[in-house]
Amino acid sequence: MDVDIISEEENPMLHRTDIRFETTHEEATPSRLSVRDSLAAKLDKASEEVVVHELDTKFGMRKTVGYAKVYDSAEDALDVEQEYMLERNKIGGEGDADAEEA
After folding, report:
1. How far apart, in whole angstroms, are the C-alpha atoms of residue 31 and residue 77?
2. Which of 16, 50, 88, 89 has the fewest C-beta atoms lying within 10 Å of its C-beta?
3. Exposed, middle or buried, 23 (CB in 10 Å: 0-12/13-18/19+)?
4. Number of domains the chain contains
């Protein structure tokens, strides 16, 4: 899967860079986690520092356009991002033991 960065916008207040990207793929639309890993590898960042927000594939096309936030550290991502986005991107994962008590 090829990942091409379309635009980058620095956001120093939140310690991140907002990125628009395009991927070209052979099979079906790639999963959020595989796109996150490919984007992290391209940007030389850890996977926990990349949060993929949006993936949009037009019907029948082999291109997917997306939006991601790349944080300076994983702690910054945990502080800023909403809980459901962290769960979708498999970042963090604490609090599972409390659910078993109920």
Report:
1. 20
2. 88
3. buried
4. 1
Take residue 70 and report the two structure tokens written for it: 């790349």
Full residue range of the structural domain in which residue 52 is found = 2-89
> Which candidate, 12, 63, 19, places its Cα nearest to that of 39?
19
Give domain status of residue 22, yes or no.
yes
CA dist 91 → 14, 28, 58, 88 (Å)? 17, 24, 28, 8
Flag whether the pTM goes above 0.85. Answer: no
Q: How far apart are CA 92 and CA 27, in angstroms?
A: 30
**Which residue in 14, 16, 18 sits closest to 66, CA to CA?**
18
Residue 97, token pair as written in the block: 């033991």
CA–chain centroid gap for 50, Å, is 5
Q: Is residue 96 included in any domain, yes or no?
A: no
pLDDT in tens, 18-31: 999 999 988 888 89
Domain assignment present for residue 95? The answer is: no
